[in-house]
Specification:
Layout: H1 15-23, H2 29-38, H3 44-53, E1 65-73, E2 76-83, H4 87-101, E3 107-113, E4 115-123, H5 127-132, H6 134-144, H7 146-154, E5 158-166, E6 174-182, H8 189-209, E7 220-228, E8 234-243, H9 256-272, H10 274-294, H11 299-310, E9 320-325, E10 328-336, H12 350-358, H13 364-387, H14 391-406, H15 411-420, H16 428-439
Antiparallel strand pairs: 1-2, 3-8, 4-6, 4-7, 5-6, 8-10, 9-10
Helix pairs in contact: 1-2, 4-13, 6-8, 9-10, 10-11, 10-13, 14-15
The structure holds (R)-mevalonate.
Length: 440
């Protein structure tokens, strides 16, 4: 088949026909079909559920689901579910968790939990007039949205406020309705977007029907109504603290003072250098994304908010800060996050459901503290390793099984290789040479 051909009606094909069509893009279509199908879930109902999470689905893409034990967060002991493909992330989280479990554990708090949505619109009219009638409009916006908000209000959430934003200094005739919401245990995307689309209708009809507005003032061009994934007022803090003396001892003979000095410098570098800040924050998201994925939440939203927050003063910086004062070490992560424990995939994905049960059916606020803590733990582990023995030794050790799998090593070859590389540097070359030796 012509591979450059534009495909139409793909979504209407049956799953089998979709796979068949896609298989023609491979060297061995029959084998490819088999392989795609081998990843189907054996339980047809679960497979149907998975298929319906998305569109045009032909198979499942597996990711490892690991556990990081010993996470003491606000005096509660958790086993963290982590969905991640990078070998050293679970190990880094587990090492940090164990380390801090004997030093008071992690501490976390939700600073605020407000979410934002916007109706962006163009309007040509008398702004002072619109402002003078805005309270009336606001009451209508809230009243008309009642059928959407009633249930959320019963759960303790709802619309917090709606403001009129004059954005004409940026774009001619551009305004916003900027609304804030409390969505309790749901991430709230659908709730917020439904409210916003309702606001847009009310806004249009208010301008059109109220006698205060004349001529072109009656027309309002709604550009779009959508939540903002930037949630600087849905903010979580996670931190660890202990006496500096308790950070040691180190088996390479370095003193705690030497360690703290380097650690502090590493964090300062990530505050001033954007190249380093990006990698530093990536290490934070290693932990956060893994919890977010394991609980069926939207990792793209969390990443987007975090990176925007990291650049809130115009320069992209580290999301963590270190305080060293009066012999005390305190390491703090502050990050915006909007997670849910009801709605979305959280109760539909069988493994997300199990993750939430493993975490003790947390509220959304508790889950956000857990996810932030996973981020802090991973970052603490990464910085500690970077400023002491360096990342590659441990990383390559963890990567050893991937390398062995690349060379199709047998179970027995794997056991012998792990033993052999216990005290040796792992590299692709070294592993291949060792396997060659075994295979001779
Ligand atoms: C690797 O996934 C993450 C690190 O690069 C993070 C960091 O450098 O801080 C180790």
């Amino acid at each position: 088949m012509a591979k450059s051909k534009i495909i139409s009606g793909f979504s209407k094909l049956s799953k089998d026909d979709k796979i068949k069509l896609v298989s023609e893009y491979f060297d061995n279509p029959a084998q490819t079909i088999k392989e795609f199908k081998s990843f189907w879930h054996k339980n047809k109902e679960i497979q149907k559920l998975l298929d319906e999470f998305s569109e045009n689905t032909i198979t499942n893409f597996y990711f490892p689901y690991g556990i990081s034990p010993n996470f003491i967060i606000n005096n509660k002991n958790y086993l963290l579910p982590l969905v991640i493909e990078e070998s050293s992330v679970v190990a880094a989280a587990s090492n940090s968790a164990k380390f801090w479990s004997t030093r008071g554990g992690f501490h976390a708090k939700v600073v605020s939990s407000v979410k934002v949505g916007q109706v962006h619109f163009s309007w040509r009219g008398d702004l002072p007039k619109l402002k003078s009638h805005f309270e009336e409009l606001k009451l209508r916006l809230i009243k008309n949205a009642k059928p959407i908000t009633a249930k959320m209000e019963e759960r303790g959430g709802g619309i917090l406020d709606i403001e009129l934003m004059d954005m004409t200094h940026e774009i001619v005739d551009y305004y916003q309705l900027k609304a804030t919401f409390e969505t309790v245990d749901s991430m709230g995307a659908n709730f917020i977007n439904s409210c916003l689309e309702d606001f847009a209708m009310t806004l249009r009809s208010f301008l059109y029907n109220m006698p205060y507005f004349e001529g072109q003032e009656k027309e309002c061009n709604v550009i779009m109504s959508i939540l903002s994934n930037y949630t600087p007022d849905c903010l979580i803090q996670s931190w660890v603290e202990c006496d500096i003396a308790d950070l040691g001892p180190f088996d390479d003979g370095r003193t705690v003072e030497e360690f703290v000095k380097k650690f502090e410098m590493a964090v300062k570098i990530a505050q001033v250098d954007t190249f380093r800040a990006t990698t530093h924050n990536k290490g934070i998201f290693n932990g956060i994304d893994a919890v977010v994925l394991a609980t069926g939440n939207d990792f793209r939203a969390v990443e987007a908010a975090g990176h925007t927050y990291a650049s809130r003063d115009g320069k992209y910086r580290s999301l963590t800060k270190v305080n060293i004062e009066n012999g005390k070490f305190k390491y703090i992560l502050t990050i915006p996050m909007a997670l849910g424990t009801v709605g979305g995939l959280t109760s539909l994905h069988p493994l997300a459901k199990l993750s939430l049960e493993l975490l003790g059916q947390p509220s959304a606020n508790e889950l956000m503290m857990i996810a932030a803590t996973a981020g802090l733990a991973n970052n603490f582990g990464a910085i500690t390793t970077l400023v002491t023995k360096g990342i590659q030794k441990g990383h390559m050790k963890m990567h050893l099984l991937n390398i062995l799998n690349n060379y199709n090593a047998t179970d027995s070859e794997k056991i012998q290789s792990v033993e052999h590389f216990k005290d040796k540097k792992v590299s692709f070359n070294a592993v291949r040479e060792f396997l060659d030796l075994l295979r001779k």
